[in-house]
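[09:14] KT: can someone run the structure on this one? pasting the chain below
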Amino acid sequence: MKSGIINKTIYDVDKIRKDFPILESMIHGKPLCYLDNAATTQKPKSVIASDVNYYTHLNSNIHRGVHSLSEAATKAYEDARIRVQKFINASSEKEIIFTRGTTESINLVAQTLGRSILKEGDEIIISTMEHHSNIVPWQLIAAEKKAKIKIIPIIDKGDLILDEYRKLLSPKTKIVSVVYVSNSLGTINDVETIISLAHKQNIPVLLDAAQAVNHLPVDVQKLDCDFLAFSGHKLYGPTGIGVLYGKSHYLESMPPYQGGGDMISKVTFEETTFNSLPYKFEAGTSNIAGTIGLGAAIDYVNTIGINNIAAYEHKLLEYATEELLKINGLRIIGQSDNKCSLISFVLDNIHPHDVGTFLDFEGIAIRTGHHCTQPLMDRFGVPATSRASFGLYNTKYEVDILAAGIKKIIEVFK
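[09:31] RB: done, structure tokens below
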């Protein structure tokens, strides 16, 4: 991502850090240096307060109650839906479905749209860099329908080969499902081109935006994607809450994902008629507190400004890349010219798990392993990587701590 101009009157990272109580923690006697934001982000005081406020003052089930608590909880829940709608610029709040997270959102589309449109011999296109959550659901429905999965390859720098993608598109292609930002490489995919090429053949496109919405401005109408999925806990919100955006005409045509309360209009023993959007896909008691908390997280991000966040994080990524590349024996996996938020690396003759364990004793939290992208690890010929991922509260000083920790590891293992 190209560096932008940071509004310093708004973006004060030292002030921002004070909004996150956990950043004051000590780990093994050292200040926490939290660089595992691609796994989950920390929560600001306003999100924590939202959760406490709900259970202290609003706790009630929603939609069906006529008493004051239920009405207040329902309003807070639906206000959060409108916040999400505006945050990603959906055309209607009816296009916002609340789920448990990105994984459930993708499964919902695979099990409803996929089951409706796929037949034997049809094809689904995904990419080499997909998270398992955007591989396994398609494998399951492909096996059931005897469809095939086609894979967009990538180059060594970590960019998709769009010329090969063009060749994969055919009358047999029924859906394209790709990641917006890679959780293992940081690559920002050219999703506009991916969507445009698919739409020329009337093929719907789903974007896994779990690693995008907290780093980049996302406008679903401008992108023209048909579906978009993300998780609240990567957007400084609670765990257990996610979003599926879908264009209304697709959502209207798709059967319910689950049966139960609130997704129905009328039930008899002979038949059931289903509720209108978005409730047709929200069976049972929702994660009410989590949904309201997601709304609070969006408010927090909007207060800082997603463009300010993107510009700040890009400068931080540039600095981190420059500093880590100075370290002999360190190799970065994924060096796209268009990337954000994270650096995955390997050290010569040192296993990533040893790296992660050693850094933990320095107070540094990173992620090690295959990051739920085993096919991508196979592509690069590594079993795992060490991944440092950045959020809106990270600093150059923390990058320096990381670099010093890595140098210490290399000295010890010599």
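[09:33] KT: thanks! Residues 1-5 have pLDDT under 50 and may be disordered.
[09:34] RB: yep, looked fine to me
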